[in-house]
Amino acid sequence: MSGEVDRFQHGAALATLLGDWSTGDGPLYRKLADAIAAAADDGSLVPGERLPAERELARVLAVSRSTVVAAYEELRGRGVVDRRQGSGTKVNDRRRPRHSDGRVRGGRGTAIMQRLIDGPGRLISLGYAADAGVPEVAEALREVADHDITDLLHDAGYHPRGLPALREVVARHYTNRGLPTSPDQVLVTTGAHQALVLLAEVYLRGASSVAVEVPSWAPCLDIFRQHGVRLVPVGLDAEGIDVRALAEVLTRTRPALLYVMPTFHNPTGRLMSATRRRQVAELAARHEVAVVEDNAYVGHSLTVDEEALPAPLAAYAPESGEVLTVDSLKGLWAGLRVGWVRGPAGIIERCARRKAMADLGSPLIEQAVAARLVPRLAELSRARGVVQRRRLAELERLLRQRLPEWTWTPPDGGSSLWVRLPGGHSADVYAQLALRHGVEVIPGSTMDPTGGHDDHFRIPFVRPPEELEELVCRLASAWTELVRHGPHEDLPLRPVV
Fold first, then answer.
1. Where is the composition biased (Basic and acidic residues) (predicted)?
2. In order along the chain (497 residues), what is the average pLDDT of each group of 10 residues?
């Protein structure tokens, strides 16, 4: 228990757990008390768990200390917490959680998953960067209905490894990009997320650590955290993951996996150079560390034609190297939920067994649609890139106009800007104010546990111009409140005697 009771000594971790606690009606102190009580009821806060100090939580939530004091006193009155001089505020030892309400809680990325479940509501959520599907998805679906559906219906419908036609076109796609691949090296999954889950199950049993880029996308990191491994951070430079730092980490820790996003890294949008890919692949092979390259954003180029991109990192690996390449059709439509992992046939077979246990195989009609789209990826990505560049330019224009103090490096690809707040301002604090102005911000602390990007956050630009304008308007209002007025003062009414 001693390892758990101080999980929330830093207020940012509790703020992430509480989600959009400040929305709705009523005074802030009562809404804060309600949110903490709900977390205790569903077991997210365990008996004996120490809550953050009043000043620390007030700082992160962008409220006055008196608001937190009033919330803690409200909780004490309800019997949710105990408060003692010198020992702080703890969840009541005698309180037992009710049955879970089923909400997604746990790691720093799970709040993003909960937002997908809840839907955006009145908020503009920056928790996901998914665009509407391209028209060619509908065209491919009609072709499947006209030409493929009869054969599909004569099939038993169970293909844990994936529809053979899709595995064949994916193998051909990689071969054409300089990575010779056969269909038995491809496993079709329900999106790239499932591919990462399966790989974690194969590699992390009994493992102690995984080397990861920082920053990185929090829901992906949570997949590894669920296996109880330690995440060993490695920073980035202009070409991708820092190879000198990586060499030191691989020598010192011998992780079970190295997880990288070489093609349009999330959240920075950086493209790893071909030279860097070779260095990483050779270094990992020398240390006998398997590499997972997550290329889920490969169809989101903003600077170069897709056909001019470097080959997947696996293409640069020596014969002794072990590289798993994860990809999906997110660039065409996230709702298609088709992804895959390419790797050594033996590893793919082990993943396929786990895939069969999970769902017996992904839906075949969606895979048949994907089989018609994969050969057109370069063409479709070029068309999508024209739209994305226009939206990025509009977002940058609006930010320079309304928030000229903010800075960023234009991305090579992807669907977001990685923005830095000036003056060392905390993105955790800003995120709390942004919530009250109708925007859900995912702060940099969620993506970098080292604290190196606490002043950053991600702004997706995959929105129509009118939505981008409203988004920046709300962000600017929240920023004005932060720099001019600081935390919100919210005191309960008390009788004067």
1. 81-104
2. 57 81 85 90 86 89 89 91 85 70 48 49 81 92 95 92 97 96 98 96 94 94 93 96 97 96 96 97 97 91 84 97 96 92 97 95 96 94 90 97 97 95 94 93 92 95 93 97 70 41
Which residues does residue 240 pair with via DSSP β-bridges, in sequence order?
237
Three-state DSSP class for residue 230: strand
Q: How many CB atoms lie within 10 A of CB 174?
A: 22
d(CA 314, CA 301): 20
Spatial distance between the Cα atoms of 45 and 92, rounded to a whole number of angstroms = 10
Instruction: Give pTM, 2 decimals.
Output: 0.84
Tell me which amino acid residue 272 is: M
d(CA 388, CA 301): 9
* Token output for 173: 């796609």
Q: Which CATH number fits domain 135-378: 3.40.640.10, 1.25.40.10, 3.40.50.1360, 3.30.2310.20?
A: 3.40.640.10
Enter the tokens of residue 208: 């102690």
